[in-house]
Amino acid sequence: MKAIIFGITGQDGSYLAELLLEKGYEVVGITRRVSVPTLNRINHILPKIKIVEGDITDAFSVSNVIKEEAPDEIYNLAAQSHVGTSFKQPSLTWDVTAGGVLNILEAIRYSGRKDDIKFYQASSSEMFGKNYNLQEGFAEMIKYQDEKTPFAPQSPYAIAKLAAHHLVRNYRDSYGIFACSGILFNHESERRGEKFVTRKITKWIGDFVKWRNPTNELGQILSDELSDARMEFLDNIEDIDDENRIYNSLMDKEGFPKLRLGNLDAKRDWGHAEDYVRGMWEMVQHETPNDYVVATGETYSVREFLDIAFKHIGIEDWQDFVVIDPEFYRPAEVDYLLGIPAKAKRVLGWEPQISFEQLVERMVDSDVEEARLQRPDLQRV
Ligand code: NAP
Ligand code: G4F
């Protein structure tokens, strides 16, 4: 079996490539030309995969690669995937996140092999926006989303994803293409992009732990005296005005910049990407193409993520370390997501295996370890 992955350099692309290799697939990954390396998530599997240069906004390159590689399966994970950025770059988001999908579907349609290619599209729970269904629970009404919840997108990103979602359904109905969409709720991991809230928090924690407990070049923790001095500084942290400081290095400054975040009350259904790429593959293996919600069925606020993440490094009161910065508020917010993956469970046998607490702790551990082993330059985000 041969699969093409658009978006192989991203979080999901890297996990999906690993999964397909384990299953014996030939994997072709499409990467765009950029001025800095973007292969860090897939460096460890590079010898086992084929990389082809391409961009989903370029219809010719998309069509050529599909003709030349003649894949059995195509997974489209490529997107401008950051919701906040989509408000600042709506046109680019539209071209990549919606237009790119049309390019792939047209390329499949005219490939001469349209009945031999199975296509997966990365749809998103963001498409639900503010909508939810209600169901009676033990003590209160439970708000949730599933495949029947009407869409009400709240951002240029979600609107582009919804256009792509409808295109997939339309090409399935019109041309009989095996095309399915996974409506995936938020999924994170140790490889999550650093601008998403979960990784932003755990990356900050990693850098902070390194600052609190400095290490030498070999990553060994230096004397406790230094860390005691820094803990003393932390006890007086309320007196520090860190507004206009710029930190280039973690090691040579007396203070540490606070973690700047936006809306802490937003609730998300957060799973682990490793579980979710398994869901993508299972959808494509089913004999009929369909759309599925992939989620955990639990929801937590950004505050609850902070609770677990900071507790994991021994800090109960994270409020001392976090500043609310309106820069990170969005013009329109999605307040609440909780997905019910009953259809994926019933039809595909899919279930998540990594709990919310395990997810947070794995991310914190990974960033603490990564910071310990490196000397990252810290810049304000
Ligand atoms: P990600 O880490 O941001 O990865 C996005 C990928 O798209 C990267 O490989 C990126 O390449 C590539 N890309 C961007 N523009 C491109 C273009 N013009 N041509 C070709 N490739 C392009 O996203 P992710 O978290 O892995 O998510 C994967 C997909 O699932 C995305 O479509 C996302 O919108 C969707 N999704 C994600 C979640 C989630 O919670 N993670 C939930 C629902 C849906 P570079 O490395 O060159 O930037
Ligand atoms: O981590 P986020 O940026 O993820 P968001 O907007 O939910 O989108 C992610 O999940 C979608 C699936 O539902 C995907 F389709 C999409 O591609 C992406 O992977 O923000 C989560 C919440 C938001 O409510 C945001 O307002 O966290 C809030 N937040 C609070 N402070 C912040 C911050 N988000 C970011 N990125 N940065 C902050 O400082």
Describe this structure in words.
The protein has 381 residues and is of the alpha/beta class. The protein has 11 helices and 15 strands. The strands form 5 sheets. Strands 3-2-1-4-5-8-13 form a 7-stranded parallel beta sheet, sandwiched between helices. The chain is globular. It starts with a strand and ends in an 8-residue tail after the last helix. Residues 238-253 and 376-381 have low confidence and may be disordered. NADP nicotinamide-adenine-dinucleotide phosphate binds at residues 6-7, 9-13, 32, 34, 38, 55-57, 77-81, 96, 100, 122, 124, 184, 186-187, 193.
At a glance:
This protein is α/β, with parallel strands linked by helices. It has helices spanning 11-22, 59-69, 83-88, 90-109, 156-175, 197-212, 224-235, 273-285, 302-311, 342-348, 356-373; strands spanning 2-6, 26-31, 50-53, 73-76, 118-124, 133-136, 141-144, 178-184, 187-188, 259-261, 267-268, 271-272, 291-294, 300-301, 322-324.
Number of helices: 11
Measured between the Cα atoms of the first and last residue, the distance is 42 Å
Q: Structural class of the helix and strand makeup?
A: alpha/beta
Percent of residues in β-strands: 15-25%
Number of strands: 15
Task: Report low-confidence residues grouped into runs of 5 or more.
Answer: 238-253, 376-381
Give helix % range: 25-40%
Q: Sheet bearing the most strands, described?
A: 7 strands, parallel
Give the topology string: H per helix, E per strand. EHEEHEHHEEEHEEHHEEEHEEHEHH
Spell out which ligands are present: NADP nicotinamide-adenine-dinucleotide phosphate, ligand G4F
The best one-word shape is globular
Rg calc:
22 Å
Strand order of the largest sheet: 3-2-1-4-5-8-13
Mean pLDDT across the residues is 91
